[in-house]
Design a protein that fits this description.
By secondary structure, the protein is α+β, with helices and mostly antiparallel strands. Helix content is 25%, strand content 33%. The chain contains 10 helices and 20 strands. Bound molecules: adenosine-5'-triphosphate.
Amino acid sequence: MAELTLDHITKTFDDGGDEIVAVDDVSIDIADGEFLVLVGPSGCGKSTTLRTIAGLESITDGEIRLGGDVINDKRPQDRNTAMVFQSYALYPHMTVRGNMAFGLEESTQLSDDEIDDRVTEAAEMMGIADLLDRKPGELSGGQQQRVALGRAIVRNPEAFLMDEPLANLDAKLRAQMRTELQRIQEDLGVTTIYVTHDQTEAMTMGDRIAILDDGELQQVGTPLECYHEPANLFVAGFIGEPSMNTFEARVDGATLVTDDFEYDLSQRHRDAIGAREDVVFGIRPEDVEVGADTADGHTYAVTVDVVEPKGDENYVHMTFDDDHETPDTFTATIGGLRQVDAGDSVVVRFPPEAIHVFDAGSGEAVL
Ligand code: ATP
């Protein structure tokens, strides 16, 4: 069993006397064989978290356990993890075979034949068996990335640690490699932590995703949990494309009031909101009903500003029709065959079962 536990880990750097808290009291339990994606904007502490697990950075506080053993103070080579970098980090003067086998003799008790077998097996798994005698300079970027992944597989580690491994590939190859990587990870059943800043990659690859902002863990959950039940405004804005529409609002009895619209609250909404007065109202673009034919306390007249065709769907940017000085704009997603054009007047509905409400002060989700 190789479950991986980050137990209140903190990592600070000293930047010429200033303390930078790169990882701030982060705790995550990653199950044996799980594929966990660490995601967040640039500088949020993803790479530092991964590097502390690999032993490339020491932690300032907390405990890291792999398969039940505390590994905080172990040297990187003694941790039984294998890291894959965005830059591939291959030795240019060595063949693919040499790169994949490098260090195995010292770190394991394997004979040359056994190492050779492992390298061949991993190379076959990665589809690079016919490239074993080439040097990295004679390979495409995609092939080099396969070598880097193959090198990690050969080590037969308890955990794969991957830092944006597909970031240097073009979009098509990246999509292909995502699927392949998931298949291999599932076949091998090795606990994996995968760092990316790309929320689409996180949503499609992770069994669960852990969302970081400014060194702090915002939410850990399945992609669907984080999408449907974002813990706070940050997660709501970060997960989902286009982002959730949000409006500052006031609660006035059974009505939620923004600068542009009033929204009838149900008893369920009111129970969740409690005594709060200042909230943020949220609705995902795909939850906006465009062309609603029943008028109720959830429908509004709007004007279409721009239609962005995206193939099988359109992003429709709209503005409320009201006499407010700067009416709010928002985005709806509708199927590609539905036709609305810039300048059209339409009625939209924000269905009561789909709305989100956040505390205006803390940003925490209340609904
Ligand atoms: P990116 O996606 O841009 O790689 P990240 O989420 O991986 O970002 P980190 O590289 O972990 O973020 O950096 C987190 C914070 O720690 C940043 O503010 C960064 O400037 C700082 N940091 C990282 N390494 C060091 C270091 N060696 N010395 C000082 N500060 C550092």
